[in-house]
Amino acid sequence: MSLPSIRSLSTSTSPPTSTSPFTPTIHPIFESSTGTWQYIVACPSTHRAAIIDPVLDYDRATQTVSPTTALALLEQVSRAGYTVEMILESHVHADHLTAAFFLQNRLARAQGGLRPPIGIGKRVEQVQRQFGRRYSIGDDEYVGVFDRLFDDNEIFAIGDLRGEVMHLPGHTPDHLGYKFGDDVFCGDSLFHPDIGTARCDFPGGSSEALFRSGRRLLALPGHVRIWTGHDYPPADGARPAVPWTSVAEHRAQNKHLMDGISQQDFVALRSARDASMAAPKLLHPSLQINIRAGRMPSPTDKGDRLLHLPMKGGDLV
């Protein structure tokens, strides 16, 4: 498979390779324009794999969608000889477009018709209804688009790997983490310790809930690795290019959730931070595409695929 130039893409220099059939081999791929960590998580004994939180590229200036980042994921899958059994979303993202549907179709062709289901938390339906109404999207464009709606604490398999679903609300109400052995993919709940945690000011978000979710993660054994969904490295590049931090390090260093910070302290810190933050740059296209699991809007009779863009001051005459 030939790839276009990928200047914005980098990978961790040494992705963990498992020697145990019950510990995943992990390939992290960083998409720098949205600061997103995507993951390929593979069973070493069967070469069956899952893809977590994949990104579809969107150029705001030209309103162009392209699959450069997703093609890089497919290149890694092909190079490693994996069969992708599932595409996992941690939540409905508000800062990037998901590549889940694109990857599902490409993989079905590459895997002889084996079409990996797209999984997400069962509470996604309330998020879909909310944003479907906000953007005047018909039910037929988002109802039933996800193939698997996970229950809290549900167990599933990728090859011989045992996956566990962790409901981690706070950033969004549908938010999940995925645990494989001593590795947890926490989506947008925890970031690196010097950043802290995700914002809670989206509809359905809750700083109280995120505090409880964070405490659930930090109650895991100290050696467990927490793989984040985003990173915003400092301009000097001082932080190592790895997407995980141990539970013990978070307990000692996480600026929002380290040991000794109370729920009251956390809510005050998080609320002050959220009040100062601008909306994500790709908020409106992301939500409209992601409640569709990455499908594009239905075309008009002219062949255009349109998104809604809220305007302020629209009552001017």
TrEMBL record:
Keyword Metal-binding: yes
Alphabetical keyword list: Metal-binding
Molecular function as annotated in GO: metal ion binding; sulfur dioxygenase activity
InterPro entries documented for this protein: Metallo-B-lactamas, Mito_Persulfide_Diox, POD-like_MBL-fold, RibonucZ/Hydroxyglut_hydro
Pfam families in the cross-refs: Lactamase_B
SMART domains listed in its UniProt record: Lactamase_B (SM00849)
Domain Metallo-beta-lactamase: 35-230
Swiss-Prot/TrEMBL GO biological process terms: glutathione metabolic process; hydrogen sulfide metabolic process
Keyword Metal-binding annotated: yes
Region Disordered, annotated ranges: 1-24, 293-317
Name of the protein: Metallo-beta-lactamase domain-containing protein
Provenance organism: Penicilliopsis zonata CBS 506.65
